[in-house]
């Protein structure tokens, strides 16, 4: 480096100049392409879909997912109501080893 700390001297060789030039050209092409193909925002895309009368495939898939979630919620609610009703009796079992297999014998429930 140089003794003068206020200035910075860079050495640009041909390879560096070519890479920088190619980067600038590609970025310019990218900016022009994005400007020319203007991607619509979410609000604009929904407005162009045709309103509530025209359901797109994405909207249909969303409705199917919501219906499936509602069915799952209903099933979980039914299971919860059954468990809370007290109709189920829980019986604890104790393992007893007898020869070849494991047999389960009922155990008195603790209160």
Describe the structure in your own words.
Helix content is 53%, strand content 11%. The chain has helices at residues 14-36, 42-48, 57-85; strands at 93-98, 101-106. Strands 1-2 form a two-stranded antiparallel ribbon. The protein has 111 residues and is mainly alpha-helical. It contains 3 helices and 2 strands; from the N terminus they run H-H-H-E-E. Strand 1 and strand 2 (101-106) form a beta hairpin.
Question: Could you name the key traits of this structure?
Answer:
mainly alpha; 2 strands; two-stranded antiparallel sheet; elongated; 11% strand; 3 helices
Major β-sheet strand ordering? 1-2
Order of helices and strands: HHHEE
Structural class: mainly alpha
Put simply, the count of helices is 3
Estimated helix fraction = 40-55%
Note the topology:
Blueprint: H1 14-36, H2 42-48, H3 57-85, E1 93-98, E2 101-106
Antiparallel strand pairs: 1-2
Short description:
Helices cover 53% and strands 11% of the residues. By secondary structure, the chain is mostly helical.
């Amino acid at each position: 480096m140089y003794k003068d700390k206020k200035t910075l001297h860079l050495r640009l060789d041909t390879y560096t100049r070519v890479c920088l030039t190619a980067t600038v050209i590609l970025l310019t092409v990218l900016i022009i392409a994005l400007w020319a193909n203007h991607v619509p925002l979410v609000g604009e895309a929904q407005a162009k879909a045709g309103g509530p009368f025209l359901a797109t495939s994405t909207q249909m898939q969303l409705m199917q997912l919501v219906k499936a979630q509602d069915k799952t919620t209903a099933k979980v609610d039914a299971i919860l109501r059954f468990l809370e009703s007290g109709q189920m009796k829980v019986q604890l079992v104790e393992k007893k080893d007898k020869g070849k297999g494991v047999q389960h014998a009922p155990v008195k429930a603790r209160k």
